[in-house]
């Protein structure tokens, strides 16, 4: 097979490279900068130009990294590699692999709907498609981003009327910037947790026009937060860091929040359904658009989504990987997001 | 159903009592009387009857969603809640209507008389005219499992704020055998004497568990002690020549206990007794689960009545000669009760005897003997206490015997439901029988959120096999399981059934080999079964 699933990651024997490997290798092609896809210790990294700054910020400025533009072809030992927008976070890519007319696409994490910040997902035709399945169940269907943010902005307004600070949490990389970009900034000031603001700086430096935010620091008087919003990482919930925002109302933005059980399990006031992954309909649309004959299903509801595809007449199998989906946002991850330690 | 759905959402989004009471009060202001009454009914365990079989609901939901049935089932297992799964899985509504809560409940009740295909069409048109949250509420109504995170007590508090009527009067008015079809908001809630109902019980006075030392209760001479009997708390009412039996769930259960029929003649009119409905034979209480099998029966056959006959263990008298005597001190009520039980002189009515003690340590010794008496522990009541309503601290305490425990190995795990849908929270435990692990009980609760997270990760990483929603896992983790009682059971492989099993703690210190054995479990059965 052109790509093989090994203990280390997705391997291309012909080019001797790995895609998003979870153990150190000589040459790694990286779909995006999240901790479960982009790990330390590889001797060489290849990613998109837009993904590079964050990867360097997180893994160290001294890593050996080469970049490509979206769509640009890089040939390694006769195998043609190109990166195409995955719509997951800024710079995130699906990796297209072509050798002697056979085409595979490893999609990493993706979402189909546009979010106003990330390069929009681009369907890529292939013979074999490797898809995630984080939300591969028909109970997961996202509302439009517009409707969801209307709810978030209304919640913020109500909290403001009640003299409270609003605290909304999401991944420092990706979710947080999407939130910042889509909030109604006419309501008040958008403050950020240090871990979020660090990523913001990296992203602004690469030329992205991210709306303005203020980093939460020791010397800001407590009263300033009142009525405003703080965008924080999930680890902030329940930590002493939250004290200065009292009284506050706290929310989580995650795809998991579409289940009442998950909303209630987290000790938060509100759960908003906002995911950087594809929902059920998007997964199906994406698979169809590739026109793939064969689909490998990774992280998520792998068995279920794979069986469903088989019944739809698309040959499918599951693959064990160490990728994780949105687990940090509900406190379930086993991979520690690096930036959370640095805050 | 807009206001009701809004109420549901607000209640769901908070854990704060004050916010809940406010949301209810606001709802009472906005809703019509008829909707208010239905809401009160739903929040006081008076749900409308189910009119559609659950399996049809599932089948049709899958069909309308154009999904294979197995995929629907999987989604349901993962979401853990049928009403929610259906609400999420169906396509978006075609058109929106805004009908009242009462409209929808009547709609659901009307389904009862319909043919299968008519039911199906009605269900479809309802589903396709409600948005996801309304659908969820509607589904909760058709599947019958409505829990809104509001106790009856909290609802009464909000109702008191809304009406200006005091809480205990309202609690009294809400008791009895009413449904929204047989009364009105005006008659039930707002009218003082209208619909006077002879069957009405008094709210039960419930005790808190004693956590401090008994010494903190002061002088022993201020207290009565009784055994805590392990049956169903109940009230027997005789008024105007009729007998009514109520259980603590505020259910009228007269028909379930024909044994008490004789008391209709023997107790004077205007008498209300508080006591325990206790399975009892040959001078001994029987295991509680015998009573449970009896409750589950529709028809009480001779065999059932012979196998698990009941007596009434009287604790207290609340009404005497038609007068509410709950304000009398307990000592005076007790004297009245003793003479009353003596006068009745029927083997079905027992007095709950006092446990005599002078010093607290004597009572502690009596408590240790609880299992000999088939009782759960000791009840402590101040001699000068009035009979209060609901759970109140100070005058009455229950002092339960320590639970039995056993160390067991976790072998299966299942996802939780509702708020724990993403986590493996329900476990099956086993003990050793030679080289083999024999499952003997399920247990949950008792672990912290952090521990649940750890166990969940263990389960995900150590799965041996999957059977639907159940995973078998590498036997490795040992837990101490606490339980209140143990009985013989032919339905279980292990031969035993536990009463109230729960996880007491995670035995990080014990390797799996040191868990208890089936033999040890059977020894407990010998002693306590
Ligand atoms: Zn990702
Ligand atoms: Zn991922």
From TrEMBL, chain A:
It comes from the Bacteria. It is an enzyme of class 3 (hydrolase). Keywords: Exonuclease, Hydrolase, Ligase, Nuclease. One of its GO terms (molecular function) is ligase activity. Gene3D superfamilies: Ribonuclease Z/Hydroxyacylglutathione hydrolase-like. The keyword Transmembrane helix does not apply. Its EC number is 3.1.-.-. This is Ligase-associated DNA damage response exonuclease. The lineage of its organism: Bacteria, Pseudomonadati, Bacteroidota, Cytophagia, Cytophagales.
TrEMBL record, chain B:
Its EC number is 6.5.1.1. The keyword Transcription regulation does not apply. Keywords: ATP-binding, Cell cycle, Cell division, DNA damage, DNA recombination, DNA repair, DNA replication, Ligase, Magnesium, Metal-binding, Nucleotide-binding. Residues 303-433 form the ATP-dependent DNA ligase family profile domain. CDD domains: Adenylation_DNA_ligase_Bac1, OBF_DNA_ligase_Arch_LigB. GO terms for molecular function: ATP binding; DNA binding; DNA ligase (ATP) activity; metal ion binding. GO terms for biological process: cell division; DNA recombination; DNA repair; DNA replication. It comes from the Bacteria. Coiled coil: none annotated. Pfam families: DNA_ligase_A_C, DNA_ligase_A_M, DNA_ligase_A_N. It is an enzyme of class 6 (ligase). It catalyses: ATP + (deoxyribonucleotide)n-3'-hydroxyl + 5'-phospho-(deoxyribonucleotide)m = (deoxyribonucleotide)n+m + AMP + diphosphate. The keyword Cytoplasm does not apply. This is DNA ligase (ATP). It comes from Fulvivirga sediminis.
């Amino acid at each position: 097979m052109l790509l093989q699933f090994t203990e280390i990651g997705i391997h291309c024997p012909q080019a001797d490279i790995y895609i998003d490997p979870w153990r150190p290798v000589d040459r790694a092609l990286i779909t995006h900068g999240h901790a479960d896809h982009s790990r330390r210790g590889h001797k060489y990294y290849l990613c998109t130009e837009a993904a590079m700054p964050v990867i360097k910020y997180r893994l160290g400025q001294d890593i050996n990294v080469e970049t490509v533009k979206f769509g640009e072809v890089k040939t390694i030992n006769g195998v043609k590699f190109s990166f195409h927008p995955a719509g997951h976070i800024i710079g995130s890519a699906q990796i297209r692999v072509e050798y002697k007319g056979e085409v595979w696409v490893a999609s990493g994490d993706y979402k189909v709907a546009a979010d106003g910040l990330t390069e929009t997902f681009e369907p890529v035709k292939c013979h074999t498609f490797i898809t995630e399945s984080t939300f591969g169940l028909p109970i997961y269907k996202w509302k439009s981003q517009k409707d969801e943010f209307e709810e978030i902005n209304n919640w913020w307004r109500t909290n403001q009327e009640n003299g409270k600070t609003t605290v909304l949490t999401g991944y420092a990389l990706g979710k947080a910037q999407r939130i910042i970009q889509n909030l109604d900034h006419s309501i008040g000031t958008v403050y950020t947790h240090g871990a979020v603001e660090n990523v913001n700086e990296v992203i602004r430096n690469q030329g992205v026009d991210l709306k303005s935010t203020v980093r939460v620091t020791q010397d800001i008087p407590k009263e300033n937060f009142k009525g405003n919003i703080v965008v924080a990482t999930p680890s902030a919930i329940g930590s002493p860091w939250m004290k200065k925002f009292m009284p506050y109302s706290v929310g989580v933005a995650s795809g998991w929040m579409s289940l009442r059980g998950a909303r209630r399990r987290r000790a938060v006031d509100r759960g908003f359904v906002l995911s950087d992954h594809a929902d059920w309909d998007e997964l199906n649309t994406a698979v169809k658009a590739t026109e793939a004959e064969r689909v490998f299903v990774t992280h998520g509801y792998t068995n279920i989504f794979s069986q469903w595809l088989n019944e739809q007449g698309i040959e499918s199998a599951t693959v064990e990987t160490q990728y994780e989906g949105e687990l940090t946002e509900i406190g379930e991850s086993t991979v520690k997001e690096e930036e959370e330690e640095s805050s | 159903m807009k206001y009701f759905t809004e109420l549901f959402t607000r209640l769901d989004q908070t854990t704060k009592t004050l916010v809940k009471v406010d949301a209810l009060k606001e709802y009472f202001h906005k809703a019509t009387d008829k909707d208010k009454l239905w809401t009160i009914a739903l929040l006081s365990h008076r749900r409308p009857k189910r009119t559609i079989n659950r399996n049809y609901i599932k089948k049709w939901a899958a069909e309308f969603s154009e999904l294979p049935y197995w995929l629907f089932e999987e989604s349901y297992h993962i979401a853990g809640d049928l009403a929610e799964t259906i609400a999420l899985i169906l396509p978006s509504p075609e058109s929106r209507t805004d009908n009242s809560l009462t409209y929808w409940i009547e709609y659901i009740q009307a389904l009862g008389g319909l043919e299968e295909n008519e039911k199906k069409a009605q269900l479809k048109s309802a589903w396709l005219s409600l948005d996801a949250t309304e659908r969820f509420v509607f589904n909760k109504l058709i599947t019958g499992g409505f829990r809104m995170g509001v106790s009856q007590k909290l609802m009464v508090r909000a109702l008191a704020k809304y009406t200006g009527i005091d809480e205990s009067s309202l609690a009294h008015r809400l008791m009895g055998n009413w449904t929204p079809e047989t009364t009105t908001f005006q008659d039930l809630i707002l009218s003082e004497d209208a619909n006077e109902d002879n069957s009405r019980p008094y709210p039960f006075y419930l005790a808190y568990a004693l956590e401090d030392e008994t010494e903190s209760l002061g002088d022993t001479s201020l207290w009565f002690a009784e055994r805590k009997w392990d049956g169903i708390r109940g009230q027997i009412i005789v008024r105007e020549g009729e007998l009514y039996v109520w259980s603590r769930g505020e259910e009228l259960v007269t028909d379930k206990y024909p044994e008490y029929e004789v008391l209709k003649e023997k107790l004077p009119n205007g008498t209300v007794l508080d006591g325990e409905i206790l399975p009892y034979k040959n001078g001994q209480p029987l295991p509680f689960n015998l009573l449970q099998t009896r409750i589950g029966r529709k028809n009480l056959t001779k065999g059932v009545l012979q196998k698990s006959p009941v007596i009434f263990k009287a604790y207290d008298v609340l009404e005497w000669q038609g007068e509410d005597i709950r304000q009398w001190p307990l000592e005076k009520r007790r004297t009245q009760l003793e003479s009353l039980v003596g006068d009745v002189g029927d083997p079905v009515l027992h007095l709950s005897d006092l446990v005599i003690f002078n010093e607290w340590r004597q009572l502690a010794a009596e408590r240790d003997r609880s299992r000999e008496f088939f009782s759960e522990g000791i009840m402590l009541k101040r001699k000068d206490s009035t009979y209060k309503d609901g759970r109140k601290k100070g005058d009455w305490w229950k002092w339960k015997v320590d639970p039995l425990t056993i160390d067991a190995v976790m072998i299966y795990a299942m996802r939780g439901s509702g708020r724990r849908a993403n986590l493996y929270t329900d476990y099956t435990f086993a003990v050793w029988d030679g080289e083999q692990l024999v499952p003997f009980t399920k247990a949950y609760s008792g672990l912290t959120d952090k521990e649940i997270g750890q166990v969940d990760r263990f389960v995900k990483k150590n799965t041996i096999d999957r059977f639907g929603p159940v995973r078998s896992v590498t036997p490795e983790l040992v837990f101490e399981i606490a339980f209140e009682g143990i009985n013989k059971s032919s339905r279980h492989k292990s031969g035993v059934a536990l009463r109230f099993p729960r996880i007491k703690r995670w035995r990080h210190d014990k390797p799996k080999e040191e868990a208890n054995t089936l033999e040890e479990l059977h020894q407990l059965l010998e002693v306590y079964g």
